[in-house]
Design goal:
The protein is of the alpha/beta class. The protein folds into 2 domains: 177 residues, 3-Layer(aba) Sandwich (Rossmann fold); 143 residues, Orthogonal Bundle (N-(1-d-carboxylethyl)-l-norvaline Dehydrogenase, domain 2). Helix content is 51%, strand content 12%. It has 15 helices and 8 strands. It has an 8-stranded mixed sheet with strand order 3-2-1-4-5-6-7-8, sandwiched between helices. Strand 2, helix 2 and strand 3 form a beta-alpha-beta unit. Helix 8 crosses helix 14, helix 11 runs antiparallel to helix 12 and helix 13 crosses helix 14. The chain is globular. The structure holds 1,4-dihydronicotinamide adenine dinucleotide and 1,3-dihydroxyacetonephosphate. 1,4-dihydronicotinamide adenine dinucleotide binds next to helix 1. It is an enzyme of class 1 (oxidoreductase). Pathway: Membrane lipid metabolism; glycerophospholipid metabolism. InterPro entries: 6-PGluconate_DH-like_C_sf (IPR008927), 6PGD_dom2 (IPR013328), G3P_DH_NAD-dep (IPR006168), G3P_DH_NAD-dep_C (IPR006109), G3P_DH_NAD-dep_N (IPR011128), NAD(P)-bd_dom_sf (IPR036291). GO terms for molecular function: glycerol-3-phosphate dehydrogenase [NAD(P)+] activity; NAD binding. It is found in: Cytoplasm.
Length: 334
Amino acid sequence: MTRAAIFGAGNWGTAFSLVLADAGTETVLCGRRASVVDRIEQEHQNPEYLPGILLPESVHATTDPGAALEGADFLVLTVPAQSLRESLIRWAPLIPAQTVLVSLIKGIELGTCMRMSQVIGEVTGVGPDRVAVVSGPNLAQEIAERHPAASVVACADQAVAERLQKACHSTYFRPYTNTDVIGCELGGAVKNVIGLAAGIADGMGLGDNTKASLITRGLAETARLGVALGADPYTFAGLAGLGDLVATCASPLSRNHRFGRLLGSGHTVAEAQQEVRQTTEGVKSCASVLELARRHGVEMPLVETVVAVVHEGRSPREMLAALMARSAKSESLY
Ligand SMILES: NC(=O)C1=CN([C@@H]2O[C@H](COP(=O)(O)OP(=O)(O)OC[C@H]3O[C@@H](n4cnc5c(N)ncnc54)[C@H](O)[C@@H]3O)[C@@H](O)[C@H]2O)C=CC1
Ligand SMILES: O=C(CO)COP(=O)(O)O
């Protein structure tokens, strides 16, 4: 039987444990807090992160990373992007030689501007054939309610991607394989930033034309960065690109969208942080995405706008005016 250890018993880690278990994979969640782990182990629920969801009894939980990793075919990582490196440094010595490392994380590391698969490779020394990514329009609450969704499992090694696909393919979760890890990771990280912009627009009451324009031009700047980094531009038309971007920009379940809406309706960043509380990756990753774009000479006006509002104290209305006043251009991506 295929065995998976999920590190990070939060919103998405817990929902993904359900996906794996329903696909017939032996699954153990590894969390930091005994109170969370005990409720999963004894009551099959994680109400702090997924209220109202009953987990299959086959999902186990522990606070012991070594025990969780014993015989694991897959180590699934679902901690916040900015804490992956320090966590992985502790876990690396415990990882069995054949285990495939799978990132569910949608962010870019501050300072290094690395994608999560790059952080994994650097910290563990594991090669690209054993590092995979799962990314797509997968809001945890909807997945946990077993509403049908598709996703992408990406790995440089197609055979490994197919093994992972099989491990998480269920009646309601349909993963497609892709070998473009760069494109899938960038799609996931940048959509959080565009999701903040869409939330801001909603908070300002701007309507659906504005939202559609943000989604479309947001995708154009994501693809522009992707191409500069060696991604396949078609990836951005797929589930890890357009699919995830649409879900995040449309859904009130998205934390990034909610955070943006609070900013757009006049709340401060501190107030939005206080209100949303859970991991909102775009808030930090907007700065690293912009830095990455600058290092590669890529223009990302929407990401710049979000950074100005979130980190530089500029008002959404002032930044909107600046965006609309940019010089007229051709629609071409490049
Ligand atoms: N929630 C969702 O719908 C989806 C989330 N994601 C991505 O999954 C990742 C995790 O997000 P969520 O599960 O939603 O976040 P969350 O906030 O619900 O859970 C994060 C987990 O990481 C642990 N954690 C927090 N800080 C930590 C630290 N410093 N060191 C070690 N562990 C730490 C927490 O205890 C918790 O178990 C993010 O990158 C997010 O973008 C991807 C797809 C869907
Ligand atoms: O990545 C997600 C859906 O695929 C979740 O988005 P949020 O992190 O904005 O909630």
